[in-house]
Write a structure and sequence with these properties.
The protein is an alpha+beta fold. Helix content is about 20%, strand content about 50%. The protein has two domains: about 40 residues; about 160 residues, Beta Barrel (Porin), CATH 2.40.160.20.
């Protein structure tokens, strides 16, 4: 008798569950996904929706000559806006240094503004490599007093971390090449070559973080 009662209860419970099944299937949510799917979906949505403002610190070769390299620290600020699998980055950067202790010759390199497009190689992941290109209006001066002011295109590679956190960070390499001059005061370099700005790109390695 007890076995018959237990069987009846099980049949009734199954019938109730079956009756409620269509309603539950229509209320499917992300909570029903496996954990790895939840993480992937969450990261995809989060990374596509966020943008952040950052401070950048780095070192730059600000003396584009054929026989020397001059490494000085620099600062920059910018704003990076996510656009699907990429980002638009707008920034301003400034570097200034002195060629040697006790000398008056100074160097500088600035971009104001600089706009770049960056493409993420792994846009759905927590961290991703990226690469892109940009164009800036800027200027520079080397230790000999040669100056350039005008358009400066650049290429960028980097690695962005903590893409789903409140505080995000990145390391980045930029290679810039003075191209179209609005003002160009040429003082010949040591070899007598007056167009060395056109032959010597500027390399900058930086670390940035922002919210």
């Amino acid at each position: 008798m007890k076995k018959k009662i237990a069987t009846a209860i099980l049949i009734a419970a199954a019938a109730v569950a079956f009756a409620n099944e269509p309603t539950q299937s229509h209320s499917f949510s992300a909570n029903d996904l496996p954990m790895e799917k939840k993480i992937a979906a969450g990261e995809k949505i989060s990374s596509a929706a966020k943008s952040f403002t950052y401070l950048r610190m780095g070192v730059t070769d600000t003396v584009p000559t054929t026989n020397s390299v001059h490494i000085v620290p620099g600062l920059g600020v910018g704003h990076r806006i996510s656009t699907g699998d990429g980002a638009v980055d707008v920034s301003a950067n400034y570097t200034r240094g002195q060629w040697a202790k006790g000398e008056n010759a100074s160097t500088y390199f600035y971009t104001l503004p600089k706009a770049s497009y960056l493409h993420y190689l792994s846009p759905a992941k927590h961290s991703s490599l990226y690469a892109g290109a940009g164009l800036a209006f800027g200027g520079l001066r080397n230790k000999d007093g040669a100056e350039f002011t005008g358009l400066i295109p650049s290429a960028t590679v980097g690695y962005e971390m903590n893409r789903n956190a409140d505080v995000r960070s990145f390391v980045q390499l930029d290679v810039s090449q003075p191209a179209i001059a609005a003002k160009n005061l040429i003082i010949k370099d040591w070899s007598g070559n007056a167009d060395f700005f056109e032959k010597a790109p500027i390399a900058e390695i930086s670390f940035g973080f922002g919210y």
